[in-house]
Design brief:
Structural class: mainly alpha
Largest sheet: 3 strands, antiparallel
Oligomer: single chain
Order of helices and strands: EEEHHHEEHHHHHHHHHHHHHHHH
Strand order of the largest sheet: 1-2-3
Distance between the termini: 47 Å
Number of domains: 3
Low-confidence stretches: none
Helix content: 55-70%
Mean pLDDT: 90
Number of strands: 5
Number of helices: 19
C-alpha cells in the first residue's frame, strides 16, 4: 500500500511515482481526509476544518470532492466515499482490488447517459439528480454537461461561482441564465444578454438559444413585448430549419406569455389549445407546469380569480414535484411581474412575493445573486 506525500509548497501530492498539483483547498481537504482515514465527516465539519473563518456553502465540499476524485482517479489505492445521509470518508484500498467494471463498459455508460438525456427532456429534475447522486455507487461517470445540469436545475448558484473547468463561453451562458431566472428582469438584465451575444464567446448552440428563446422572455418581462414579437417569426424559422424539436414546446409557451403581455387574449386562448394537444404527445413536466401557470394568468385576465389562483398554484406544484427549482423560481418571478404590469391584484401579488421570499431564503438568492452579478460584470468586461 503506497503512502501519500504532501508538499505544501506548490500543493503537490505524490503517490508512488506519480505526482499531481492541486488547488489550495483541494490540497487541504485531501490532507485532512487522509490524516483521518476511514472517519466519516459531515459537510459542515469539513467546512469548519478546511474553510475556517470563511462562509462557503455546503455544496462547496461536494464540488471539491468531485474535483479530487477526477484528479486522483488513476490512483486506485485511494477512494473518497460518499456515506449517504452523513458525508464523506477517505478509504485506502488495497492495491489490486478490482474497480467497478461498468466504469469501463462503454455500453453501460451509453445506457446511463441515454437515461439522463431522457430525464432531461421529460423535465424530471428529481429523477436526474437522484441518478447523478448515485454515480459512484452505480459505477458510471457523468459527462460534464449532465454534472453541470444537475446543479443548474437546483438553482445552485454557488456551484457555478466556484466552477473552474467549464469553457469560458459555456460558463458565461449558464451563469447569465441563472441570474436572469432567479430575480426580476430589469433593463440591466436585458443589456447583459445583449452584451453576452456581442462578445462572440458563446458556443453557437448557446448563442442560438439565448438569441432566439431566452431573450424573448427577457424582453417580455422588461415590458417590451413589441421587441419580442418582432423576433418571434425568426425564432420559428430557426426551430424549423435546425429541427430543434426540443424547442417547439418552450417557444409555444413563450408565445402564450407574449400574447398575455400584449393583451391579445383570443390568441392566448387559441395557443393554449394548441399546447394542450402538444402536451399529449410531449408530456414534459417543465412545460406542463409553465403552461398551467400561464393558463391561470389568462383566467385572471378574464376575471376568473378563483380558478386562476388554483391553476397558478397547481403549475408551481408541478414544477416543485418535478425537482425544477430554477424553473419554479423563474415562474414565480414571471407571475409577480405579470401582476405588476398587466393585471394588478394586491392579494395575489403579495402572496407570490411571499413565495419568492421563501425561495430566496431556501436558495440564498439575496446572498448569491449579487456575487453572480459581479462575476457576470467582470466576465463581460474582460472576455
Amino acid at each position: 500500500m503506497n503512502e501519500l506525500k504532501f508538499e505544501t509548497d506548490g500543493c503537490k501530492v505524490t503517490y508512488g511515482t506519480e505526482s499531481v498539483t492541486l488547488l489550495a483547498k483541494e490540497f487541504a481537504l485531501l490532507r485532512f481526509l487522509y490524516d483521518h482515514c476511514n472517519q466519516i465527516f459531515t459537510r459542515e465539519q469539513l467546512l469548519d476544518h478546511v474553510w475556517p473563518m470563511e462562509y462557503p456553502v455546503e455544496r462547496t465540499v461536494d464540488d471539491h470532492v468531485y474535483r479530487l476524485r477526477k484528479k486522483l482517479r488513476r490512483w486506485s489505492g485511494l477512494s473518497i466515499h460518499t456515506v449517504r445521509g452523513l458525508g464523506y470518508k477517505l478509504i485506502r484500498v488495497p492495491v489490486g482490488e478490482r474497480l467497478l467494471p461498468s466504469l469501463n463498459d462503454s455500453r453501460m455508460q451509453e445506457a446511463v447517459h441515454i437515461l439522463l438525456q431522457r430525464y432531461h427532456l421529460l423535465g424530471q429534475g428529481t429523477s436526474l439528480q437522484t441518478l447523478a447522486a448515485q454515480e459512484e455507487q452505480l459505477g458510471f461517470e457523468l459527462t460534464p454537461l449532465y454534472r453541470m445540469y444537475a446543479h443548474f436545475v437546483k438553482a445552485d448558484i454557488g456551484w457555478f461561482l466556484e466552477e473552474k473547468e467549464l469553457p469560458a463561453g459555456v460558463l458565461l451562458y449558464w451563469c447569465l441564465i441563472l441570474y436572469w431566472a432567479t430575480g426580476p428582469v430589469t433593463p440591466y438584465t436585458v443589456q447583459q444578454c445583449e452584451r453576452a451575444l456581442a462578445t462572440g464567446v458563446l458556443p453557437s448552440s448557446h448563442a442560438r438559444e439565448l438569441r432566439h428563446l431566452n431573450i424573448l422572455e427577457a424582453y417580455i418581462e422588461n415590458d417590451e413585448p413589441g421587441r419580442a414579437a418582432r423576433l418571434l417569426p425568426r425564432t420559428h424559422e430557426i426551430v424549423k430549419r435546425d429541427r430543434l424539436d426540443g424547442f417547439i414546446l418552450p417557444v409555444a409557451i413563450t408565445e402564450v406569455y407574449l400574447h398575455l403581455s400584449a393583451g391579445q387574449l383570443v390568441k392566448v386562448h387559441e395557443q393554449l389549445g394548441r399546447i394542450e394537444a402538444m402536451l399529449e404527445e410531449m408530456p414534459y413536466l417543465r412545460e406542463r407546469g409553465r403552461y398551467t401557470i400561464f393558463k391561470g394568468l389568462w383566467h385572471l385576465r378574464e376575471g376568473h380569480a378563483v380558478e386562476a389562483e388554483k391553476l397558478v398554484d397547481e403549475g408551481i406544484r408541478i414544477l416543485d414535484a418535478a425537482g425544477q427549482e430554477l424553473m419554479k423560481i423563474k415562474a414565480v418571478c414571471q407571475i409577480v411581474r405579470y401582476l405588476e404590469l398587466h393585471c394588478p391584484h394586491e392579494r395575489l401579488e403579495n402572496k407570490y412575493k411571499r413565495v419568492y421570499g421563501g425561495l430566496d431564503r431556501d436558495n440564498k438568492l439575496s446572498i448569491l445573486r449579487p456575487q453572480l452579478a459581479s462575476w457576470l460584470e467582470h466576465t463581460l468586461a474582460t472576455v
